[in-house]
Amino acid sequence: METKSQNLLADLQFLVRLIRTGAYSDASSKLNRCILMIQEQLPKLAQQNPKAMQSVLDAVHRMLKHLEKQDWVAFADVVEFELIPFWTSAASAS
Fold first, then answer.
1. CA neighbours closer than 13 Å in the CB half-sphere of residue 18
2. Whole-prediction pTM value?
3. Domain tally for the chain?
4. Does the chain have fewer CB atoms within 10 Å around its N or its C terminus?
């Protein structure tokens, strides 16, 4: 059975593929799902590791700044090189 971290990890990886292939409409829908999943996991993360939670929040903040500028490549970079490695370790720990 997959954990919530594994589900989020799979969705983040798919989000990056959608962006990298230019499927921005589909990426927007997937992004909404990912944000809801991140929000759901933040309280637990805050209790277990406040420093890690701040790293996630900082990455999400950078993602949103890139979205404001419609810079999908930079957005995908944050997801791929910051959030995916974080949730890979979280998924393997659960």
1. 17
2. 0.87
3. 1
4. N
